[in-house]
Amino acid sequence: MIQRLCIVGLGLIGSSLALALKRRGAVNEVIGYDCSAEHREKALNLGIADRVEANLKDALREADIVVLSVPVGAMKGLFQKIAPDLSAQTIMTDVGSAKGVVTKFAYAYLRSHLHNFIPGHPIAGIEKNGPESADSRLFVHHKVILTPLPENNPLAIEQVTKMWEYTGATVVKVSISHHDEVLAMTSHLPHILAYALVDLFSQCEHPEDFLQFSAGGFRDFSRVASSNPIMWRDICIANHIPLLNLIDQYIDKLGDIREAILQQDANTLTELFTRAKSIRDSYL
Amino acid sequence: MIQRLCIVGLGLIGSSLALALKRRGAVNEVIGYDCSAEHREKALNLGIADRVEANLKDALREADIVVLSVPVGAMKGLFQKIAPDLSAQTIMTDVGSAKGVVTKFAYAYLRSHLHNFIPGHPIAGIEKNGPESADSRLFVHHKVILTPLPENNPLAIEQVTKMWEYTGATVVKVSISHHDEVLAMTSHLPHILAYALVDLFSQCEHPEDFLQFSAGGFRDFSRVASSNPIMWRDICIANHIPLLNLIDQYIDKLGDIREAILQQDANTLTELFTRAKSIRDSYL
């Protein structure tokens, strides 16, 4: 049982985590902080937080666990702001999609608190935003990745692990570089491809005319382009090294397909499409 | 009521159409033809066809409506084979995703039958193949596009329209070039992007390790890569002109995003992602 949980950032992930723990009876009190007054009010009205604070210092007071659920780009500033007010006992974790950058800032600004800061990332999310989208079942049967630091206190890792397990998630521990490389492929690149497609689409003369003739493929493919632009801008910038590498490889791959279509090279197309189908069918 | 319907090609679309019309009581007898003995047997066992024929000529005999539901690349050969055995009264339509090429072959090989050949394309389909995937509700609330020819007999257009309406679909008539341009954007390009992503993915050292950390985005994005490779190879080649144009535009768009990430250009990324989100949210 967590006595006092502080959620910093009342978006989809932070709000869903609070709801999940409350429904499970795994937390006694949730304190919510968000720089948006609208988010704070909604979180209070929806029963996501028992109390909300407009002042970060007030929100942190006597928290047992603090969860930082803000866009990755806001982490540096948040660490700087939060560091002086953190008690040595407070355990902290985050939910950012790019762990290299978050960890770099943690080493820079949380030096005296590194034993209790456990970097984390729940592999769950939908294209909806804000506390009004909170779903207490968002993490059920999902993976939560932790990338513990050598400095971490094993008891703090255990507490954060338990917290996520209460939501129905499975916790997995991997290295920071492995996390960032894998997520660039399975999440960050697909988001960029979807944003690019929808943006191209928006340049059609009459997109509404086009949409009436779109089937499930376009709908599913473009779904993630409804995700939070600020969050994804931050992820792109934070995880730019593996991501740029993958974008280059993807452009090369598209170039190969383009060339095969141009040359009416049926064999190459059949081979590539068959290989892709077989991978998709066997793994998913 | 259609007295005798002949389905040439007992894949997902042809089989689903037969089932839909049977369930609705809109057809008296369905004759199935497929070059695969396995497909013929399954279609018979699953009640998709009342009779199957291994000989195309036998299948066509006294058919009121013939539906050609084969990959686009097989259309030329099929037109050549079918032309001598078609009665002047038989109405024919197809389901190909690229109407320019199908029509070109129709003008080349169906000269004496152009009045009764109505090119068509149901905007429905899933990533499953074969008669075992047939679904009598596949076309409900979906669009079916017809691209009638100037030579078409209005009564034949009406019959094909009615046939599709029996399945629960809405029939829309557009020009051939408009069809091919729109479908390249809403369907053909997304399929290629998904095949390219999954193929890139397959080159990871341990794709299974990557997949355990993938969430809904990757799953939805890559779904269409499980589609029939032969069908999609044919579509790419058949509709190559608008498709190559779009692939080029898409590579340019990805290049813009790549550059913005490289330059850590937060404004450009925010602008592009926000525009895409707004389009996706408003139209879908």
Description:
The structure is a homodimer of 284-residue chains. Chain A is an alpha/beta fold and 284 residues long. Chain A folds into two domains: 2-174, Rossmann fold, CATH 3.40.50.720; 178-283, 6-phosphogluconate dehydrogenase C-terminal fold (Orthogonal Bundle). In chain A, 52% of the residues lie in helices and 13% in strands. Chain A contains twelve helices and nine strands. The first copy, chain A, has helices at 12-23, 37-45, 56-60, 75-82, 99-109, 154-166, 176-202, 207-211, 216-222, 229-238, 240-262, 266-283; strands at residues 2-8, 27-33, 51-53, 65-68, 91-94, 117-118, 120-122, 143-146, 170-173. In chain A, helix 4 runs parallel beside helix 5 and helix 7 crosses helix 11 (240-262). The model of chain A has no long low-confidence stretch (mean pLDDT 93). Chains A and B meet through helix 7, helix 8, helix 9, helix 10 and helix 11 of A and helix 7, helix 8, helix 9, helix 10 and helix 11 of B.
